Predict the structure of MFS transporter.
Amino acid sequence: MPDPTLPATHPAAGILQRPYLWVTIGTCALVFLAAFESLAVTTIMPLVSRELDGAGLYALAFAGPLATGVIGMVAAGNWSDRRGPTAPLYSSVGLFVLGLLIAGTSASMPMLVSGRLVQGLGGGALTVALYVLVARIYPGVLHPKIFAAFSAAWVIPSLVGPFAAGIVAQVFSWHWVFLGVVGLVIPALLMIAPVLRGMAPQPAEAAKVPWAVGRLAWAALAAVAVLALNLSAEVRIPGLPAATALLAVAAVVLALLAVRPLVPRGTLLSRRGLPSVILARGLASAAFFGAEVYLPYLLIEQYEFSPTFAGLTLTGGALSWAGASAVQGRLGARLSHRTAVTAGALMVLGAVLLALATTALNWPAAVAIGGWIFAGGGMGLLYPRLSVMTLALSTKDNEGFNSSAMSIADSLGGALALATTGIVFAAFTTTAASFSGVFALAAVLAAAAAVVAPRVTTRRP
């Protein structure tokens, strides 16, 4: 018998209609604030590093949260499978807020990095807990719409986050970029609290799913590998010029070995169904974010754009991501999952190839800028659909595991790509060759995503 404290299932209702209105606003607000904080830190970190004399820990301030986030994802997934999403969600928000408070009150760079590590742990767990909450609250017919809303909530901060963070840091202090978010997270959580109170865990639910201590250990090892790969570019051993490459390869191998127990069996082999859904998500993230961070850099170095204008060129991609997410959500079953994912991967591949051609052939900058609109549109098509498929292919006993696997694919895919493109960029002697190498690697990853995309659905008998 359904729990009367939970929203009744109303397939005809929209995500902004009763009984889902406040849950939708609260969950989207949490996604928005996590995204805003991630982008805002990028803007203020040079100022923070200069004020706290922390140039040596600059890279770790970004790599650290990504690494600890993997541990948070696994822990929240296992906890959610055992006891439901209520306790993991409260705990993840608590850790996220604690990290913000530590970073916002930092008087030294080590203290700020410590806050960022705690913040990453909470942020990774928060993502997984929200996905499980969606699975428990919303009927399947509304999943495309709520995940489209999540995509829009993640993309919108890319339009306002960096500018707003710069204004806050200039008018007040960079500390308030962290502390100000705390005051917004609490109201967002309170909007969800009534639903969370009604999701009491069943004793039998916890008995069926044991604590996965081994998976947590593998997650920690994967986090160490990500950090090692990020730091390997700084290693220079006299007499051993290949040491950087060897360390990077070892870190990648270690990360792949560590991630195997954290994702569905057969993911690295691209088995049909859920394993390929998770792999496609990781490859798409790697291709898109591995290329995106270098596009403004390309425009500044080779086309003499101002930093502000170069950053604004990504706005088109952000808007097309949000727009495509909304379109696929409205189309629902009229656009098949396989078609949406395959078309999205091909759009990302085409955009990366245009960036590569722009660099290698010295084409006008407008080609790469216009192409990135297709990249954003491709991500808007495939990202929400892969989220929907992950929940559709899950049971109540493994929603947490599968949701954490998807988030881990996002995190590790992007982290490994960014670290590897950094090594590739440093390996060439000319700027044009460096950018060409980066976009070529991203194109390979996008092509792999396009190959895997048709395998996200099983063959019909």
